[in-house]
Amino acid sequence: MNRGSEIPYRQIHLLDEDTINQIAAGEVVERPASIVKELVENALDAQATDITIAIQTDRHQVIAIAVTDDGLGMLPEEVPLAFMPHATSKILTAEDLNRCSTLGFRGEALASIASVACVTLKTRPRPRSYASPDKGGTGFHYIISAGEVLTAGETGSAIGTSITVENIFFNIPARKKFQKTVSTETARIADTIEGFAILYPSVTFRYRLNGAEKISTHGCSALGEVLYALYPHEMQNMIPLTWEEEGVNITGFISQPSMSRKNGRRIILAVNNRKIISQPIQQAIKKGYSTLLMTKEYPIAVLHLTLDPAGVDVNVHPTKREVRFLHESTVLTALTTGVRNTLSLHNLIPVGDAKPVFPTLPDFRILQKTGIKTDTPTDTHTSSYQDTYHFEQERLVPDYTGDGVYEVTAAQARLSQYRLRQTQLPLTGSIPIPTIPSLVYIGQIDATYIVASTSEGGMLLIDQHAAHERIRYDQLLLANEGKSDSQELIVPIILTLSIPEAAIMQKALFILFEQGFIIESFGRDSYQIRAVPVLLGKNEESDTIHEILDTLIEEGIKKPELIRDTVLKMVACRGAIKAGTILTPDLGQELLDQLVKTASPYTCPHGRPTMIQFPASHLQKLFQRI
Known about the structure:
The protein is α+β, with helices and mostly antiparallel strands. It has 18 helices and 27 strands.
């Protein structure tokens, strides 16, 4: 519209019934999967124990949806009412919303679907004390299209209800045009049905696509069995969870940290048997994993939350996908605590692949016999090497003396000792000690991975940098009041920041100070670093400051503790032993001893695994002994 054009004046008027119904349908019926959701919810509310969903497609779209159940069915006189807007058997007054336990309650689903499609319904009620006697197989047949009744009368029918939806969005071309491909729409339908099958394991679900059965469950009433039938691979890495706190009862399964996803789509949530989507709940679950997951990864989870219906507002979203809690912090805290405590009781070390691997060019060496050269130089070359050695060197190559012996210079040993001595952890503290067996140092691979064994047998590979990073992070957490000692820089570092970085710096200065950084304003958008945390073990850390600020800008500053945690992770990473650092057997064993004392030895603070295990049974498979 041109800037100078005028909007024509129109008087306020009432919309006609057809337009009202289509607007309502747009809120409830977004896509074919929405129709499946509404019809299955109606079947579950009707106490169905057997539900079949049949989908028909052509090359371009979903052309028919049929949902058949063995539920209560409807009396003939109830059928026309069921297709009227806001007609429902679930509630009588607004007060009933405070204790509503059914999936549906607004009475909009059938009316909305019938306004944008052709609906054929067959129903026969179960015998009820208040209903007319059963008529020996007589049911009721009802066809309605775009809100207009085409057929109504008696017919033969099984007990329950069967609804077929055809010509979907035939009278709303715009909505029909914006539907996705057939594969996308049927995938959404399958996700919807899987969700119901998981949340209602006592109900038999069958899903057929163009006559081919895709999903079949058998009402076993055990959630684990349904999950195993649907996701046999994932269930090998799922952990059962049962937790109750402050009136919030939580049951279900959560995945081991090693089995994560890039989004939260595999977090299936139900509140009082109602499937919901909730970002706060997803974040509470992730918080329970803490540093076991990387920042942008999500676990797989299937969790049922049961609490007083009066504490849940289900009437906040047109499709009832979201709910609001009266005491949200209580619910979120219970979730985080339940997940954290459940994980703490399990061995979370991922298992290595048991498939044999035959490299064409083996290029790894295990450093089994490691000696330390004395400080007394034996020749000019050795003396020069030690004199010019710098602590910030990251890649160290040992000398080979033959007979499988690799020798480490005294300078190399001092570097490793310096870093490890900075990270002594107490045997007890405010962090829980996980159930992890003692580790015995064997050697190194490529001066990067530690080879270790356990009292339970088998072999572990430990990433020495990730392991030391975890140790340093836990040490910082245990430090008094989170304050780290500082080391003054001989020459202050001047930082010239961008406008976004300068704004973040103003908010982060105090937190950075708590972690051992002393930073002062040095003119417009410039700052000088006068001291850095002593644990860094380096003299210049301007890159660290920039990296911290970049992280804070990307993720945003929401809470002070997030800034503090970002700084702690950065400090822990920068000062940890690097890949390529040679360890003596004593230092390697010391690192392992400290690792098992940490709160979460399975991952580094950023969520990267510290170790992978190869149990004895897996080693036997690798060598084809079984």
